[in-house]
Amino acid sequence: QVQLVESGGGSVQAGGSLRLSCAVSGRTVSTLLVGWFRQAPGKAREAVAGRHGGHGRTQYSDFAEGRFTISQDNAKNIVYLQMNNLNPEDTATYYCAASKTDWTNLLGQTSYEYWGQGTQVTVSS
């Protein structure tokens, strides 16, 4: 069974940066589709970024393009989300997700069958 554990969340001022980590166990990242999603209070969960763990193709939601970067360390089997130039609208619980079966949509929530517990990101103005 694939397990995902997020870390790296915290509080930061607007304009600051954070790097979230997702430790993957049970399967190598290079054989998974991996992604990051977020959910703010009172709002629906939305996609942030997705990555093909094998060939490295990535896709970003519009709000994340140019500010966020999804990457992976195959040796450590960790997926990262580097977030730069954060603003208060980025405040949310961020979730790591993975799929070993559905490789069709990197930003589709239904593509992912494994989910982490989430890590809180709070951006103050």
Could you walk me through the main structural features you see in this protein, from its secondary elements to its overall organization?
The strands form two sheets. Strands 2, 4, 5, 6, 9, 10 and 11 form a seven-stranded mixed β-sheet that branches. Strands 1-3-8-7 form a four-stranded antiparallel β-sheet, with no helix packed on it. 0% of the residues lie in helices and 50% in strands. Strand 5 (46-52) and strand 6 (58-60) form a beta hairpin. The chain is globular and about 40 Å long. It has strands at 3-7, 10-13, 18-25, 33-39, 46-52, 58-60, 68-73, 78-83, 92-99, 114-115, 119-124. The chain is mostly beta strands.
Record the SSE blueprint.
Elements: E1 3-7, E2 10-13, E3 18-25, E4 33-39, E5 46-52, E6 58-60, E7 68-73, E8 78-83, E9 92-99, E10 114-115, E11 119-124
Parallel strand pairs: 2-11
Antiparallel strand pairs: 1-3, 3-8, 4-5, 4-9, 5-6, 7-8, 9-10, 9-11
